[in-house]
Design brief:
Oligomer: single chain
Helix content: under 10%
Radius of gyration: 23 Å
Strand order of the largest sheet: 3-4-6-8-11-14-17-20-23-26-29-32-35
Length: 506
């Protein structure tokens, strides 16, 4: 599983709040009134000043002694479900065995006193595991665990109904946190983990009802997995896999190596709103082979400078974007709170390029070019049906591929000052395109069929946006670079009602 850039396949707290306001520029005298894109974003700044836990044990709680190695795991084993554990101040450790971990029972709660740290000492792989439901972890620092690649430290087994709040999960290998259904991840510091801050992945079944709110997600992928496994598509701030229903709001996602937020493979029904996404090396947001999302009222700035520049310097002409929608779209047949992907009232400022809508003509169920290995769309239950000759006919011709369709991009403000980015070309693009289909030889999507569809017939639409700076546009394929007049004119007819001011930065 993983992202598909162009024709190349890449496998697979109390909150301290700061108010940010996006400000506008006056329009040209003959322009239509500028659409309102300004909004306020409450930002989670929790890593520097995490909320303190209870200074003494709550009534009925079991006290855990940091001086006793393995005390937390032992007392968990010897206590009934629905027990509350209070970890005294100090450095708590587990037995010196790689698999030693805490296995909670249903409804257990773990509360850290001020200064309570659970430290894996670069020895233990996991902090909290098992399948118990309804576990709570609050006011604790979890650090120094060495989870393997793609695995996580807290809620290692993706149990359901966990609540993780006011907790610092930092300096671990793998993912700091895994996710299960109905998980609440609120007001945490997910910082400096080797692969992801959180990996929302469940080995069996789908994750539903996920809330990620008010967290600071910073500096993850310290192990630089894209360098270690080129093209793996396996690193960044947060990765979501097959999540059906997620609210991702009021997070500060910044300075991650790779993408900030990445939804990959059969996600559905996301609301991504009121976040501050800034200074991530890659895209701020990737929505890939997924469905039905609302992306609104986010402030997105200075993202994709590292990865965008790297590809540009290599001579690659693909419009690498800060919001990248890859083989994803609205699908009314899949139940969600919306039946399209709507991107609106966001402010994008001085990122490496803007929004790219992309569809790989060679990526579909059973195609060797499908890096989501073994996965098919949510519209086809029997993957074997996506084969010739049936795939060339309705309904499989449409249903066997993830389509970038019904994407509505409106009332956003796009600001670009090339002198801030220190670039002259390839950092200024908005795009809707596909490649020329060639592979495999039995594909019914060969030639320009997909490029024509994504550009003209799949109801992808920009309108009523504000552009400040020297933007350019790409349509159909990477070779068609357009100015705003060509973008708005026939045959593309994009950005009706939008305002363009070409001077850098507005």
């Amino acid at each position: 599983m993983g992202i598909m850039w162009r024709h190349r396949a890449l496998p697979a707290a109390p909150l301290a709040l700061a108010l940010l306001a996006a400000t506008g520029c006056e329009g040209t005298p003959d322009a239509q009134p500028e659409p309102t894109a300004a909004h306020s974003t409450s930002v989670a700044r929790v890593c520097d000043k995490p909320a303190a836990g209870p200074a003494k044990a709550p009534a009925g709680a079991v006290t855990v002694d940091p001086a006793v190695v393995g005390d937390l795991a032992a007392k968990t084993r010897n206590s009934p479900p629905h027990t509350t554990f209070w970890l005294r101040p100090g450095r708590h450790t587990l037995a010196p065995d790689r698999y030693a971990q805490v296995i909670p029972k249903e409804g257990n709660s773990y509360l850290g006193a001020p200064g309570a740290v659970l430290d894996g000492r670069r020895t233990n792989q996991y902090a909290f595991g098992g399948t118990a439901r309804g576990v709570t972890v609050r006011h604790l620092t979890v650090q120094g665990f060495v989870a393997p690649h793609d695995e996580g430290v807290v809620n290692h087994d993706s149990a359901d109904g966990w609540v993780i709040e006011h907790t610092t999960i930092q300096q671990n290998s793998g993912a700091g946190l895994m996710a299960g259904a109905d998980q609440q991840v609120r007001a945490n510091c997910l910082r400096g983990n080797g692969q992801y801050g959180m990996n929302a992945y469940k080995a069996t079944g789908r994750i539903s009802g996920l809330v990620v709110e008010g967290n600071e997600i910073v500096g993850n992928n310290t192990d630089d997995w894209e360098r270690r496994r080129p093209g793996c598509g396996c690193a960044g701030g947060v990765k979501f896999w097959a999540v059906d229903g997620a609210d991702v709001r009021r997070n500060w996602v910044h300075d991650n190596r790779g993408a900030g937020l990445w939804a990959d493979t059969n996600n559905n029904d996301f609301r991504i709103e009121d976040n501050l996404l800034e200074d991530n090396d890659g895209a701020a947001l990737i929505y890939e082979t997924s469905y039905n999302a609302v992306i609104r009222k986010n402030t997105i700035r200075r993202n994709n400078w590292v990865e965008g520049r790297r590809y540009a310097d290599s001579g690659d002409t693909f419009p690498f974007a800060t919001i990248y929608v890859s083989e994803s779209g609205g699908e009314p047949r899949i139940r969600a709170r919306t039946d399209k992907i709507e991107i609106y009232r966001n402010v994008l400022e001085n990122n490496w390029s803007g929004i790219t809508l992309w569809e790989n003509a060679d990526r579909f169920c059973n195609s060797p070019a499908n890096t989501s290995s073994g996965a098919c769309t949510l519209l086809v239950k029997d993957t074997d049906r996506c084969a010739r000759p049936a795939i060339a006919r309705a309904p499989l011709y449409a249903d066997c591929r993830w389509k970038t369709q019904r994407v509505d991009i409106h009332d956003n403000r796009f600001v670009l000052d090339k002198s801030v980015l220190d670039c002259t070309v390839k950092c200024d693009r908005m795009a809707v395109l596909a490649n020329y289909g060639t592979y495999p030889d039995w594909s019914p999507y060969q030639g320009e069929r997909v490029a024509e569809a994504i550009t003209r017939t799949q109801h992808n639409r920009w309108h009523d946006n504000v552009y400040l700076g020297p933007w350019s546009f790409v349509a159909h394929d990477p070779g068609r670079l357009l100015d705003s007049w060509q973008w708005q004119g026939a045959p593309y007819r994009q950005d009706a009602g939008s305002v363009f001011r070409a001077r850098d930065g507005g």
